[in-house]
């Protein structure tokens, strides 16, 4: 085709009156296509687009987009973004947006807070996304058993004993004692909560579980901190927080502000999952371990115990990939269990019903 065009241009340059035509041996269809390609005139105009009644569109549906006419410019609807940008007056969101009340004003108040399952509630927490076995056992069996074990029968009409004065008053021996607040109990400046009888309203539950590790040698060996974070995240599923030293200790060669520890706090199903692994997988396999000391507790319903590096290696997440963690770099932990109980006795009752063994003298 390019050669034919070149020959036609050469003939026109030399002043040929008749355009170049190929040999008669070429067929009619070929001669038409070659003459059209070699011609300097434009191709004949094509016919207009077929109408909707043309038989070409017989197979198309009536609601096909090919048959739908285009909307005029005046009929186009503005997008929400364009409508928002074209607004001249803006409404304040604080006035026209629902905000749940900050305080509960009682069941008879006309404005009530939405339930915690409502996403607009202030205490909304998504989940739970799975059912924990230990938590199900607590709600189905343990809670009712604790109510039965801690039940104290009080005959109707019995007068309640008045609560004794727990704070000490001043003897007014000095003029500076006037209008001073009452003092705390002697020997312990912290006023502990009173133990109340367990009813269906205050059955103790697990509030949180905190794991803490302290490694003074991490100052000279930074790999200990890396391995400790890996182990903590593996057995808890929570990214731990690195903690710093609050006071300098010359015997341990640590200075205030150095990062030598970490902690991780577990809530909800994560806390119950960790306790479930400790009770059923770790505690039974610790050699020569009698149980958690009965004297543990802070007199406010919070208990604690410790795990050595040999006991931490018994967790299934560590045991499955034991070669990935150097045995000498696996840390030990102090585990703090926070409950809603008001005394250590009720907290031990809750944990012992779940399967935590206690030994030694039990402190009230």
UniProtKB/TrEMBL annotation:
Keywords, in A-Z order: Ribonucleoprotein, Ribosomal protein
Domain Large ribosomal subunit protein uL5 C-terminal residues, every copy: 259-358
Name of one Pfam family that matches: Ribosomal_L5_C
Domain of life: Eukaryota
A GO term from the CC aspect: ribosome
Region (Disordered) location: 1-21, 73-122, 152-190
InterPro entries cross-referenced by the UniProt entry: Ribosomal_uL5, Ribosomal_uL5_C, Ribosomal_uL5_dom_sf
Coiled-coil region(s): none
Bias-annotated ranges (Basic and acidic residues): 158-175
Protein family membership: Belongs to the universal ribosomal protein uL5 family.
Protein's UniProt name: 54S ribosomal protein L7, mitochondrial
Organism: Sporothrix bragantina
């Amino acid at each position: 085709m390019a050669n034919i065009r070149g020959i036609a241009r050469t003939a026109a340059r030399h002043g040929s009156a008749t355009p170049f035509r190929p040999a008669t041996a070429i067929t009619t269809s070929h001669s038409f296509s070659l003459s059209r390609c070699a011609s300097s005139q434009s191709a004949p105009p094509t016919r207009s687009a077929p109408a909707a009644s043309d038989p070409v569109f017989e197979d198309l549906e009536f609601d096909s987009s090919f048959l739908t006419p285009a909307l005029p410019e005046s009929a186009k609807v503005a997008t929400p973004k364009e409508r928002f940008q074209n607004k001249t007056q803006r409404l304040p969101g604080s006035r026209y947006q629902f905000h749940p009340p900050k305080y509960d004003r009682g069941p008879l108040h006309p404005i009530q807070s939405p339930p915690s399952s409502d996403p607009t509630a202030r205490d909304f927490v998504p989940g739970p996304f799975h059912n924990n076995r230990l938590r199900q056992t607590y709600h189905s069996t343990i809670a009712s058993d604790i109510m039965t074990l801690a039940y104290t029968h009080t005959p109707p009409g019995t007068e309640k004993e008045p609560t004794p004065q727990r704070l000490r008053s001043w003897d007014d021996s000095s003029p500076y004692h006037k209008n001073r607040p009452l003092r705390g109990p002697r020997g312990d400046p912290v006023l502990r909560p009173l133990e109340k009888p367990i009813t269906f309203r205050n059955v103790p539950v697990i509030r949180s579980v905190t794991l803490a590790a302290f490694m003074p040698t991490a100052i000279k060996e930074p790999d200990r901190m890396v391995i400790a974070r890996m182990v903590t995240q593996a057995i808890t599923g929570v990214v731990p927080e690195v903690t710093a030293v609050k006071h300098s200790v010359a015997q341990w060669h640590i200075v205030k502000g150095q990062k030598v520890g970490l902690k991780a706090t577990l809530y909800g199903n994560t806390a119950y999952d960790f306790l479930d692994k400790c009770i059923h997988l770790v505690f039974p396999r610790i050699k020569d371990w009698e149980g958690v000391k009965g004297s543990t507790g802070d007199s406010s319903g919070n208990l604690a115990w410790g795990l050595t590096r040999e006991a931490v290696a018994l967790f299934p997440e560590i045991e499955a990939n034991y070669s990935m963690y150097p045995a000498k770099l696996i840390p030990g932990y102090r585990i703090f269990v926070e409950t809603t109980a008001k005394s250590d006795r009720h907290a031990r009752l809750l944990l012992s019903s779940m399967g935590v063994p206690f030994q030694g003298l039990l402190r009230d």
